[in-house]
Amino acid sequence: MNDKKIKNIIIIILIPLCIALGVIIFKDRKYNLISMIIAILSCIPIFLTFEKGETSTRRIVIIAVMIAISVAGRVAFTALQGFKPVAAIVIITAIYLGAEAGFLTGSMSAIISNIYFGQGPWTPCQMFSWGMIGFIAGLPFMQKLLLKNRVVLSIYGIFSGIIFSLIMDIWTTLSIDGIYNMKRYMAAVATSFPFMAIYAISNVVFLMLALKPFGEKLERIKIKYGI
C-alpha cells in the first residue's frame, strides 16, 4: 500500500471511526483521549512525507506558524460569535502547502484553541470538520481552482461554513443518546442556521482579506527555501 492510500485511509476512514467510537461507544466521556488520538493521526501524513524527504523542517515550521495564527485569530474574535478566521487560514494553508498540511492545520487549530475556549466532546468533531475543509482545499485540482478564481474561492468559503455546521449538527444529534435521528438532525440544523450563515459569511470576508498578504508571503518562502 502506497503512502497516498495510507494518508487517505487515516483522514477519511480512521479519524471518523475514532469520533464515532467516542460518541457511540464511550458516550463522549473519553473525548480527551479521542482528541489526542486524532491529533496523532493528523500528524502521520506529514511525517510520512517527511520520511520520504518531501517535507522539510522549514515546511513543518511554516505549518506550525499558520496553526498559531489560526488559533490567535479565533481567540482575537471571541466576542463575535461565529465570526472566526480559522477556516480561512486553514484554506490558505492548504492552497499553498497541500492537503495534508491543510488537514493538520485545521485539526490542531481546534484542539489548541480549545485550551482557551474549553475542551469537550465537541472537540474531536471540530478537529475533523476544520481538517477536512483544509484537506479538500489542498487537493491539486482544488488548489488551482481556488487560486485562479476569487468567485470559486468565495463559494468554497460559503461551502466550508455550511459543511462545518452540518458536521457539528451530526455530533449534536448523536451526542444525545448515540442514535442518529433524521428529525432531530433537521431540528439541530434549523436551530444552528444563524450560526451557519454568519460563519459562511465570515469565511468569505477573511479569505478576501487574507489571501493576498498571506499568499504572497507563503509563495515567497516556498521559492526562497525550495519548499
From TrEMBL:
It comes from the Bacteria. It holds the Pfam family ECF-ribofla_trS. Keywords: Membrane, Transmembrane, Transmembrane helix. The chain crosses the membrane at residues 6-26, 33-50, 56-77, 89-116, 128-146, 153-174, 186-211. The keyword Flavoprotein does not apply. This is ECF transporter S component. It comes from Anaerosalibacter massiliensis. GO terms for cellular component: membrane. InterPro entries: ECF_substrate-spec-like (IPR009825).
